[in-house]
């Protein structure tokens, strides 16, 4: 939560100041009687009191603070930051925050036989005032976050349905600023707490869990340098708190099953109108959700007006008055807000250390077929003209719940498919049969994972989830922000060991032509979208002669081919995976004695272009030149691996010395001897440090290139040989005057 303009100040205890002095100063300081009210609250909340008067005092304080909190939330952000909130500041200055914490925790701290009982209404009022103070006064949320006993105590209040929503919202705010991640194991009776939640509460609880299972973001993952990450990993030898918390959740009986049910339930299965309205009413009293409710009410009114002018509507309420029914959009919106939180938690767990365990569970609980059944009606439903968005945002804003749900859904598909045999659950039975038929026709063995897929767990209906995704992908407007996520989700289905049947399944559905249309005909400008399309195109075409034939049929003029090359050359960081795919494919095709392959080799513009030594050398030179050890990230390290692929294929043909000599000549042409080869030497030393400790990375390199990791390691060792007489060692091609290879790596 973004805190307001007042700075944190040392608290004053009003019980130590005389009433007369407080009254005298009150008008002058414009305290609005808050210190006097707090003085009364001190008097009526002593250890032996029954708290009977506390609530009426809080009822007087509360409106003064909620008014400021509402102003903070609804004001323009810039204006809000410049504003001041004197009431909440005064409340905190005179010890109001600490007093309310003490009142809330009193029953747990007193050791007497007869425990004090605080009414639910008093608890709600205390939480409400604390939350409003957190919104407006800088430092309060952080102070509360430092009190671990209070944070853990708040979780115990979640067992009470009446105070659940207020407690959850305050916890979420506190955990958002807490420096040290909370350990879920420390929460008293966590498993029984979770089992006591109904489905709505569980979805809300997922918002809190999101903070506890996500790794602390030190900036964008792709932008963070690998040097820094490697240094951090050396410091953190054991599992992180987030990983421990993920394991804790997976050990809660029935937790994943309930999440899958929540994620896949239909709108018609949600709570009845009366309890739903009651919950919305609770939301309305709770500030954080007031804006969501405002948006819901606007749509409700519009739908009511719309139904009076139309004979029927899609929600099946044609013969009844919409004004007496709960509008369908409100139900849908409610469900979207819940599903967002649940899908996020499932997505994080799918990417964690217990990935295989999570995969097994969500397959068993039929998450994928369930999402497939929701695809048209909820996840990718058609927007009405008044598609619901939050106040102050537009329909295409990333804050729109509709849009966030779609992105979260695509991220889940990406995590689910990536290098895992369960990816075939995204298909239905007929589509799985089609994969088998493709393999039989091509006279190649079926993929084991296809044969072993449990048909009772796959998608049902006319189309599987992957096919549905392809359909919406083709209809997506050129400027849509979804294109990136859609391409990533489909690409993850193809990742890993290349499968001809998987590629042909997608090629038959026109995916290659769609990608080429976006890259060439619409001349896509977004770097992120272009990168995702190049990566997808690489996976789709790799080693597949039919794909290259289709490519040549679509890119059928020199003009089109030049536009395609311009897109590739505009940013090699974005297109290098495609360059790698073309290089690997060309090498394989050249070693085959098939008439069809020979025909495509002679006709395909792309293969002819890459077969020219000067083009391969140009790519190699630029790939090495755009990266340096200090600037390597998860995003651009692929350039290093692509340059290595080019050189490994050269080594196979015993042309490695020729390539190194050509690089040396290119350096001299640029009038800067040594600058490429010194840099490459450093990059390869880093490569050894980085990859020789990591299982996953090595198998990824092996699977994607069909070159054994042993051959990768040997090639790097040969290139890094210190023997200046070796024709395959980099040092043999750097004049001693320009040698600069002994620097140590350090994070700068």
UniProtKB/TrEMBL annotation:
Region (Disordered): 303-323
Biological process terms in GO annotation: ubiquitin-dependent protein catabolic process
GO terms under cellular component: Cul4A-RING E3 ubiquitin ligase complex
Keywords annotated in UniProt: Receptor
Signal sequence coordinates: none
GO molecular function: phosphatase binding
Short name of one Pfam family: DUF3689
InterPro entries: ARM-type_fold, TRPC4AP
Transmembrane portions of the chain: none
The organism's place on the tree of life at top rank: Eukaryota
Protein name: Transient receptor potential cation channel, subfamily C, member 4 associated protein
Organism phylogeny: Eukaryota, Metazoa, Chordata, Craniata, Vertebrata
